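Researcher: Sequence recovery benchmark, item below. Answer with residues only.
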């Protein structure tokens, strides 16, 4: 019995290791390629024969990559903070407060998930043009300041909180916003961590809307700016790989910050069954 259990455990580790290699290999290949000179990009060798930092120096000094990096950081951070606050507030309201039309409001919010982003681009651009938001941080960020998915996710987590806990706070004289901020919000931290990672990643990689709303080189975000490295005359793969290597750093940092809360949330969910 013990031998069979060990064999099952070894097989599980082998499968997980293989899956990890499949997932990580493209990132490893990207990083290795970023240290190759341009004439070795298409060579049939995994390791660079002449490792160089010239690709990174060229990206950082010969292009506006630092400005594009800052733009993406500002937009992704602002939208993530906005989504965490407003989506959790709306989710709490729809889950814990009773008022007429509550379910209808929730259904209307959910129904927006069925509208493709491509159909919203024209209304967004018309609105931005009329209000002078074109080529501004606000113009890039405003479509993502709230998300229906975030409202749905937070509402489902708030639904799991016992009402007695909030009623006890009300008896003690805590305001409704105080109940939300001091009691409910700390208990749904795993959901907020997952929402933060998904929102930051989505806005960090956003391409279509920034491509439309941005008109100057200084306001480009990373995906839009990096697209300049590829054109009809060919692609500068050495620069693309170096820029991609730098672009994944904030995503890894955000995941490192919130991964503990996500794992705790998965464990708690498993314990509750």
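Model:
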């Amino acid at each position: 019995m013990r031998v069979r259990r060990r064999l099952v455990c070894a097989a599980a580790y082998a499968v997980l290791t293989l899956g990890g290699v499949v997932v990580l290999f493209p990132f490893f290949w990207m990083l290795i390629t970023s240290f190759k000179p341009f004439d070795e990009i298409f060579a049939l060798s995994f390791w660079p024969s002449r490792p160089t930092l010239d690709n990174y120096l060229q990206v950082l000094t010969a292009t506006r990559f630092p400005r594009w990096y800052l733009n993406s950081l500002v937009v992704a951070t602002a939208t993530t903070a906005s989504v965490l606050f407003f989506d959790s507030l709306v989710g709490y309201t729809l889950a814990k407060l009773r008022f007429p039309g509550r379910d209808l409001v929730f259904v209307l919010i959910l129904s927006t998930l069925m509208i493709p982003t491509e159909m919203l681009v024209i209304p967004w651009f018309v609105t931005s043009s009329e209000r002078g938001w074109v080529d501004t941080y606000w113009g890039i960020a405003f479509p993502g300041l709230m998300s229906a998915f975030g409202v749905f996710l937070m509402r489902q987590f708030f639904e799991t909180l016992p009402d007695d806990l909030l009623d006890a706070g009300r008896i003690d004289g805590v305001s409704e916003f105080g109940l939300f901020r001091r009691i409910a919000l700390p208990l749904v931290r795993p959901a907020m961590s997952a929402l933060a990672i998904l929102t930051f990643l989505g806005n960090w990689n956003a391409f279509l809307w920034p491509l439309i709303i941005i008109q100057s080189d200084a306001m480009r975000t990373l995906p839009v700016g990096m697209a300049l490295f590829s054109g009809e005359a060919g692609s500068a793969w050495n620069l693309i790989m170096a820029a991609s290597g730098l672009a994944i750093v904030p995503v890894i940092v955000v995941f490192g910050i919130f991964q503990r809360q996500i794992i705790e949330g998965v464990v708690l969910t498993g314990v509750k069954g």
